[in-house]
Amino acid sequence: MKPVMKRAGAGVPSANRITLLRDINDDGIAETRTIFLQGLNSPFGMALAGNDFYVANTDRLVRFLYHTSETQIIEPGVKVIDLPAGPTLSGLSSMRAIYCRSVLRAGHSSACTAPGTVNPGVATK
Asked: Taking a C-beta distance cutoff of 8 angstroms, is the pair 49, 31 a contact?
């Protein structure tokens, strides 16, 4: 697994940030690269619901206030829920944070189930 992760760009420790790439002239190539959000803990997923920008870190789900066209979030986030950090949530390639039908789920992809059900290792808000 390590060779695959390295080839995908995950062969180094997490930068603990989210980088924003913007294509200004619609040619499919990002002209700008900015640090959108920093001070995170190995973020593995994100979701936007209205003006709420959610980030799933390895240890907690955090909500930030987002305004359209913003290129950086500097206000501190609010913890939504602790996530069970550890071996069950350490496979970064198989984790996700999804927002669907007014339910935000963060957890290991094999633990995510149909809306309305809860499995160990899944935080629902």
From this structure: no
Angle at 49 between CA 104 and CA 30, to 5 degrees: 115
**pTM of the model as a whole:** 0.66
- Cα torsion 36, 38, 42, 48 to 10°: value is -40
Closest of 123, 83, 82, 78 to residue 99, by C-alpha: 123
Q: Tell me the CA end-to-end span of the chain in Å, nearest whole number.
A: 32
Residue whose entry in the numeric block shows the structure tokens 């390295």: 6
**Which segments in the chain show pLDDT lower than 50?**
87-97, 110-125
Cross-strand bridge partners of residue 98: 105
**Sign of the C-alpha dihedral, residues 72, 30, 47, 111?**
negative
Q: Provide the β-strand partners of residue 19.
A: 35
